[in-house]
């Protein structure tokens, strides 16, 4: 079914709004994938905060014109699925994980920080830990020296015959 001019403009505006908020775009070919499998992908994507759309490529090109995602315009051919995410790695993670379980999903590329990514670039982006994991790793690194110092001070106090003032427990 063909869209009229106002419906096309509404689609372009909606995708442009997604692109304005997003950090990452991943393109994947969905040829041969069942509707049930695409529905599973959309459910997983929604949980991760990723917007997955199947769009006409001409509408997608118009929607990303003037945005950092414009560099992907030459990759926009064939039946494509567009995954936008505000989180830098979420779209790549969702699509790459789905592609691992469904061989018909073919990664085509993507865009991050205004730079076009090839398939290996998208896979590399997907392998980066999430923001929460990175923050917890950083917190662990910052906490480690303080916890060690507290243990050493407690051991010194115990050696000198005094009782430690408080048990040094890492937080």
TrEMBL record:
Domain of life: Bacteria
Keywords: Ribonucleoprotein, Ribosomal protein, RNA-binding, rRNA-binding
Gene Ontology cellular-component terms listed: large ribosomal subunit
Gene3D superfamilies in UniProt: 3.30.70.1730, 6.10.250.290
Pfam families recorded: Ribosomal_L10
Database matches in PROSITE patterns: RIBOSOMAL_L10
One annotated GO molecular function: structural constituent of ribosome
Family according to the record: Belongs to the universal ribosomal protein uL10 family.
Protein name per UniProt: Large ribosomal subunit protein uL10
Organism the protein comes from: Tepidimonas alkaliphilus
Gene name of the encoded protein: rplJ
